[in-house]
Batch of 4 targets.
Target 1
Amino acid sequence: MRHEQAQQVEPPPLLHDQLASVSAPTQAWSHRDGTMDDHPIHGLFHGDWRFARRVELRVDGAPVEHLATSSAGDWALIRGIARALDSEPGDARIAVERMREVTPGAVLERATVVNGRELPIDVRIELAVDIAFCPIERVRDGRGDPVPVHLAIEGADAVATDGIRTLRVRSRGGAVELVDGRVVVSHRAIVQPNDWCGLSVELLLDDASLAVEGAIVDAPSRGLEPTGRPALDRWGERAVADLEDLLLDVGSGPVLAAGAPWRLMMVARDALSAARLLLPLGTSLAEATLRTLAARQGVQHDGRTGEQPGRMMHELSPHRPAGVRAGAELPPTFTDSIDATPLWIVLLHDAWRAGLPLEAVRELRTALHAALGWLGQQVGDGFLTLPGGDVAVGDGPELPRDAEGEPAEGPVATARLQALACRAAVGGAALLEALGDDGAPWLEWAERLRRRFRAAFWVVRGDDRHPAMAIDGTGGRLDWLSADLAHLIGSTLLSRDEERTVAGLLLDERLSSGFGLRSIAVDAPGYWPLAWNGGAIRPHDTAVAIEGLLRAGLDDVARRLAGQLERAAEAFDGSLPERYAGYGLADASVPVPLPGAGAPNARSAAAVAPAWQALGAQRPDHAPRRERHLHAVEPLTIVPREATSGEARFSSIGGASPRRAHVRLIDGGWPPSI
């Protein structure tokens, strides 16, 4: 064996039936009734650390019986009843409402008891919090043992700290105590008939090493205009809210975190891909993403980080290394970043075509030349490749393995990467010409790549003729159908006839599930609908296909694929996870969740934009194909983040979210009618 035995870890936890409230870089996970217990994902997280393990609400010493939960992104409203206070059988007369709202660096918990009886009741409301500081990667791997912390009462607050991270628990009107190592906040009151009492608790999370902040958007954002398709409109509303909750500021403007719970950080590939799909909503997010990456573009060769001149980073660590002062630039990680650089070029070109001023492009001219230089050097006279060995194939399916189950040796060229390289070269050429430079050499470069691709990748398998998924390090072709085909249409890598051939294959029932495109076809070796890269569906692939089909003028195929995503989004209440199982309509009436796949996810949420174009947007017949991006909606408006801690976010306990005021949490208007 060529690889050491990996450390045994627990399988990924199931997330689909859990309640997530996210406002990057902070998130809270619990059961649907709001309770946090021993489930692997439960707790309060900030950055990539868990701060609290269990949060339990009790009324008169008993758990609240759950009735219903309403949630959207960063808030949840949970309804229940307190039977312990109903002394007589019959109707449930004591109602409990629990509100949770998350903003960057803070979680607000509010419980309200409403007396529907004809007699006064004596009520004790109690919220107990178990402190448990632990890195999120250990939580993910099932090794969630907490690190030591100091826990004490400071004034009216309870404060836990490990010297770097701090959790502060405070309440207005409630007593904060330490009981058997837990923080317990309680309030007792006599509640008259048809009256109510409540307990509000703020949990303020701070990490002195954290180098990212939540980016605040002006609320409410218009998002996508209504289409008259109820499922599509519901999806659009929720997807835009999810995207707002994933915004981070790493110093050069708002960018999207990859997704909750495991990747609530900037990953270049995810941020670039999502920003490109969202160009129908405007170019401000794309511009901030482009500038953020250009500011950290590689300038030298560094074997430790993978930095190379012109190369765009893979991800930016959310933490400052020990000893690095606050505000200092962090060294980005370039390792595994093959697609980020051509994606950056493609986004710059598409944003310019969508309305980004040429002057803004001109400011990124040096970064464009450097990125094209890196691309040309990587491809040479061959293909854009991934390293061999046991590595992930970027966004694509798993690499082939030999008879002993070992991964392929040598560099691997995927069809998806060649399409991306070709599109980057053509887009880069157009940008160079607009800037007064010579783009012709890059058009010639792209044509040579097309010829090499046509000779090496196209295969005949059974009755199908199509591009192979990849060519391995020995020259062997992986000749089965895969979602990589989605990335070829509209890339300029294929001829018009070849695009029509590939478009037809995207609707083949082996690949097209009815809920989106499978990562590999059902007749491919090793296919399994629950395999992360070997059969599961990733909405982003289907969204890329829809966007490319629209640019290629293949609107009918685009609409049919968009309808599949619309069907899936409706089943997931508008918040599409990163992936879901590859079962099709013949197997299940709704998409089947996948272990470990979370939501919100930036690229999955961004998939709504091309689907909206395909299904709901009206476009004049005379509109030129290259102007497919819509400008009928206002872009997301980004405002500077003024607060620097969760404590500053809430002007008072019960203050509304600065991102979107979903629910009024002001005493005079509480509770809403029950």
Note: Residues 461 and 479 are 7 Å apart (CA to CA).
Target 2
Amino acid sequence: MKKTDMLPYALIFLLLLIKVSAFRILIFDTKSILHIVLIEFPMWAFLLSVVLLLAKKKLWLAVWIFNLLTSIIFFVVTLYIRYYSTIPSYYDLQQLNQSSSVSGTITMLSTPWDFLFFLDAVLLLFLVRRWKQPVKPAAMKYVAVSMAAVCTVTVVYALQQPIIDVSYFAKENGFLQSQVVQLYNRSTETAHASSSKLSAKELEELKGNEFVKVSKHESFGVAEGRNLFVIQVESLQNFVIGRTLNGQEITPNLNKLLTESAYFSNVFQQVGAGTTSDAEWMTNTGLYPQGMIPTANSLSGKEAPSLARTLKEHGYGSATYHADDVTFWNRDVLYPVLGYEEIFSIDDLPDIKNVGFGPADEVLFDFAANELPRQLETYERIYANIVTVTSHTPFEMPESMQHLNLPAEYEGMYIGNYFQSIRYADEQIGVFIQELKDQGIYDESLIAIFGDHSGMHGTLVTEEDQLLLGDFLGHDYSLKDQYTIPLIFTGGNLFEETEMTRIAGQTDIMPTLLALLGVEHEEPMMGHNLFQYKKNLLGMRYYLPGGSYIQSEQFYKAPGAKLPEVLYDLKTMEKRSKNSEAKKHIKDTETLMNYADLLLKDYIEE
């Protein structure tokens, strides 16, 4: 065989090596050639060698398709990590039809440089013209075997390592290896690192509190017998509450409501890949979500001991409202698991005033309000779960729905659009609260209002947005600002104006609501009654590297794909040296999350 026969194959592998190297540098910000050659590249090279061996007459077409698919994967992962700040799993990539929050903003997330991933597809066309059908060298078998051997070693080594954070794991062990390990762990259920159970007393002590039986809590039963309304607001972050822009309140209706509410201002999102649906899961079970896999997409269909089911035993009917397709994030599976008796989606709402996903929030709230008279005749009392959607990224509102007169520097900016969408959502919440009062329901109700997750995150928040945010906040936009959501409890003659700064998470919403309603829940929950306990420990996943935690005094960000670990003082968000207390919290967080996985395991498909 002539040496020139090997040349086209060498060029094919060289193009792949360059592309893999670019991907590695872009995603992980590492430039170790040794790591790329020994860890990241071999598995891609093995797959390419298999394609070359199996391809017969249409070898160049097979190579071109392989390179195109590789380019698409690299391109999608790049956009995904810019939006979510984490590496997607194989599960996320196979469900891109559900990731509309990313696919709908591709033009905003991508840069012209990203399309260089597809440059080799053009270069391969020149190779096709030079070598119509190159001779397939016998050495290709040895290349495949060699790459397979290296891959085997790296995968076996990776299987021995715990996946605490997928992004960091992929950085250390290779992107494809991380996918193989996740697939293996999921198929064998070894992702759950422990089977250790915690009693309610042990769980509370882990958070730093002295356990008190729920029926002995001072707040137990203060809203007994009332209707329950839970309003989950899309992308509502805490930093907008009580703030003004150019003399205009961003949330005037919520601000007014605070005068008769208990307002928790240090509540952190705990959602994973399922984002909004994960928030619904936590609110209605008191359990953590999976993290890297949307919980709703993994449910086996087994009934969960939920808020709706527990309240049903006390005379409550239940209904959930969302102006989107019920199959989005598998809500057609999630809602029956949560035990809702009535489910309303985009198919049930009037097809009017569509913005983004579907009918605007005003249509949703009006529909829910109109259902109340019938429901209150049917049931002794009602639990209504209302999930808004209009304030969803990219936050572009029709002019008729814009209530703010933005300063010139905010016009057309992501943060400006965000403020407009939140102001709209606030307006509709105000209208709904007034409707409850007009129907004489408000004074007989307990109402919880909270944000599902951050809206201002990822690379969609430009440097200009960051500067505007810094000016608006009076300090740099921090991780604490990003992940803090408001949680408001209100209702007629229930609360005086109260702000509580104790640390809370979304897993705390259900136990707090049940305590206020005077209802005991027999099944274990990860959260606790926020009116009773002052300290907390929140395990974080997905939006923060696995192993991260938020504790009453500390905010710990575990090492991730690009950045090292950082310990912050929670109050000031100034960096601190890692101390013995932080090491204890890291260990306690691992115990906490292992127990969370154990509880969740009962409802996840095998």
Note: The CA atoms of residues 71 and 117 lie 5 Å apart.
Target 3
Amino acid sequence: MRRAAARDPHVPRRRGPDERPRPRRRRSRLGRQAVVYQVYPRSFADSDGDGLGDLPGITSRVPHLAALGVDAVWLSPFYPSALADGGYDVDDHRDVDPRIGTLAQFDDLVAALHAHGIRVVVDIVPNHSSDRHRWFREALAAGPGSPERARYVFRRGLGADGERPPSDWRAVFGGPAWEPVGDGDWYLHLFAPEQPDWNWDHPEVREDFLTTLRFWSDRGVDGFRIDVAHALTKDLSEPLPTQAELDAGTLVDGRHPYEDRDAVHEVYRAWRAVFEEYDPPRTAVAEAWVPAHRRARYASPEGLGQAFNFDLLMDDPDAGQFRRTVEENLALARESGTSSTWVLSNHDVVRHATRYALPAGTDLQAWLLRGGTDPAPDVERGLRLARAATALVLALPGSTYLYQGEELGLPEVADLDAADLQDPTWVRSQGTEKGRDGCRVPLPWSASGPALGFGDGSPHLPQPAWFADYAVERQEGEATSTLALYRRAIALRARLQSPETLEWADDVPAGVVQFRRPGGWTSVTNLGTSPVPLPAGRVVLSSGPQTEDQLALLTELPGETTAWLVTPST
């Protein structure tokens, strides 16, 4: 029996089957111009000292999230998992990993966040399950041609006994994308072997995920982040293309055998119908790695409603690149009838404070393999540019997604020993790619003590000693700390927020990105190294190390700095 959402006044109510829709209430800021904070649960806070972050640990740190001022928290997977891929190998999509907590503790976390007006977004992983999922174990036991195997992508291998894979496709994490099961059948796994792909042509798979969406919505979840949203539906008609043909990138839009197929939007239309059962409707954001012109369909009001824009994440801190990316993505948002999204860091990439500390064009995987020393990062410049870029994106119309620890200015941990690595990329690539563990090292809450306040036990990924310099405890009360900048910028953004438009300033010095938002506030980012004159207005925010008193005296904007200005009437 489902838990009634009405138990919590912050939880939107689901309509009964015979109830007519009420007039639509105003959507929350989560839908369009939210600040969403990503929590990677296993690395946020550990309440029981086992070295792994957990739900009670997150609940204990809700005051930090409330003080930061975010509108929503996105929880990366907390489901039962063998951690073959950091929790994205899901055993049960409607439960909590016992090492992380219980469903009752999940309810406590939702209630604590809602009590502070913070909405809750959870990760949905629909492309694959884990190989420990009940249905996959049934598929292995049932044998070739069985109804149980039809829920997954099984194919007979090539050769007289099926001894060769159905194709030469490569998995994202390296190695073959097909895994033999010993009876002539092979199953598809676009990621790790422990992550078998679902067959989204199967009605039971589709219905089961609708059940999952309702399960979490009825527990108070306000929205969903859809993992690998572009890869659900597949066409494995013979002959299968070769890996070389896939790599050539010459397939017509929508005709790739497993990426960005048009049929995937049938799935999301059904999901949208579920979201609309709730008042106000649930929200969703797609992780869709597709060409920009294909992104609008994922973000459409009839689909998921929003899609991640990762373009800034891949840009160098260059004024021309930043402006082009912003212009293109605002145009795409208008086309889809939704708001844009802005991301600088997440659980899959090198943290932006480190990317900006390296020369443009640095091969990040090669740099990680060298332990992060060649070239040597300019840590101070990286943090300066990271603060400037964050202030710029927080001024943009649309939603901003922050990754845990960036409010502390955390750099990447690039020198993790091979023995400590957990990312399947390391093994599957045969040591040619180090993977993503360096951005998943547990957070430093204290400048001393066990695990720097993360928990009483040894953290599942080792923290470097220099993490203490970035601890929350050390930055609290420091007016010019990165934490103070994030808190001030988010609070000002909420006060200054205006319609989702901007007006570019074109007559600006080289290296400057400047725009004006409705309501009389202006953002100026100087990505050059020399100071530039500031436009008229009162400076209310600087990404530089200025105190509030010093802001009033600013007439020039230093290099690698962003400032926000308001007119006297604002």
Note: Confidence is low (pLDDT under 50) at residues 1-12, 17-29.
Target 4
Amino acid sequence: MTDAHPGTSDTAEIDLIVHHAKLAPTRQDGPQPTALAVSGEHVVAVGGDEEVLRGRQRTTRVIDAGGRRLIPGLNDSHLHAIRGGLFYTLELRWDGVRTLKRALEMIAEQAKRTPDGQWVRVIGGWSPFQFAERRMPTIAELNEAAPNTPVFILFAYSRVLLNHAGAEAIGQAPENGGYIADGTPAAYALLAKLPAHTSKEERLVSTRYFWRELNRFGLTSVVDAGASGVAYPDDYSAVATLAGRPGLGVRVSHFLFAQSPGTEKASWEHWAAEEQRAVNQAWDRLNGFVLRGAGEILVWSASDFEDFRAPRPELPESALAELEEVTRVIAAGQWPIRVHATYDETITRILDVFERVFAETGYTARWAIDHAETIGASNIARMKALGGGIAVQDRLAFAGEYFLEHQGAQAAEHVQPLRQIVEAGIPLGGGTDATRVAGYNPWISLYWLVTGKTVGGAQIAAPAGRLSRWEALRIYTAGSAWFSGEENVKGLLAPGQLADFALLTDDYLDPRAVPDEQIPAIESVLTVTGGEVVYAAAPFQRWAPEPLPPVSPSWSPVAEYGGYQQGDGPHLTGEAA
């Protein structure tokens, strides 16, 4: 029998029907419908083909899914999407490149077409262990690939490599032919010296291409936890402009981020007094662009940077005092909070502050820890008692080998104890922390959640603590929706839910059809946001949205990762037309 939205009448306008599909069930052992109907931005009926097709009207678009798997739109609960969009068309990405030889060829190819004043830049999302050579490039190799064009290579806020031209471009005396900087503070400082797009139109075009790229993987929503290098509100104008137009492909909930060290308290006091939260700024998309709260850096001094090539940092008492002062300002205004914490020891110190401040201020809003790679049983229990959530990402999929080397096999085995978190009943969301620390492909993250393996093939987390495929999908959809307060309307294929969904190239939920190692190769062939097709690939091109505006110079090539290819074209370096 067809499930229908309680508010749906027989005369409701049915805008879209997708049938002959395998809908992801709302329960792990639940029934598997084959069709759904959409009215406006909501799913209004789910059931069998024959039943749902009875609601077809003269103006209804009907899509035959060809027996493919249909899932709720993926929702990355920690993706720096606003910054990622601003820089998307300035970056050459090594996501999925299988050999260092090919990666260096890409540098050489891009250097030939990079305009004066710009750089060839590879800003995260790769691992040296994904290469057959299993190492980083040398400075000599970068100089050979690009003798005259500045090159900037970032590995996971851990190491920066500059060729000779790059070192000279930032006024750094070359050492051994170029420059190498280690550590997160050094990476931040060097990143700040890179040129950005110079016009609003360039930023807008870059963001549009990034949104379409996210749609290609089935993402329809992101929660942006704030970002360094992005000034509020000026650098948010591209997303605000897109939100003011029809056809927004990605719903964005965002959190504000401390702008610079030493100004945090003044910034939070200003924002708490002046900014309006939970107000939709999108023109024709429910929950399209919404400010949600404060995070992920509340104060800069209280961050335990995710440099897994270095020892765990200790938070000084002065940092905890600053964190307490700022948390009291935010909690007094009942703003939702999310805070960066990589290690269990850091989580202990942060929870000491939160327990005290939340009790003093009567704080009842939603709050969460981001990352939590080494959280232990005691802090899981404390978080449960305090009502917090945990947003996890696949950062160790790109740096797990270094974690294993520096922290040891026993610590690695217990990273991200997802099974224990789920069984504790703590809200759990999935994500990537893209685009610098990890790539933005959600299927690599889902692969990590299911297997605990890196992109280089190393087994890091113990399989016993991992999730089933259905559970991983659930935290990447309905689970992630909790972090923006949308768990009642987003993340399921059910009547009354927002009509956000993706039709997949391969059946993720069938391990016989898709072995674990093939999960990263999955893409969407049809992505729908708010009942509107925002991305379509073969054999569904007839449903494709209007093409994006051209960009120059020439697109640069992107190699495969587990089989995935660029949809609208690879990334470029240079100025947009």
Note: The first strand starts at residue 3 and ends at 4.
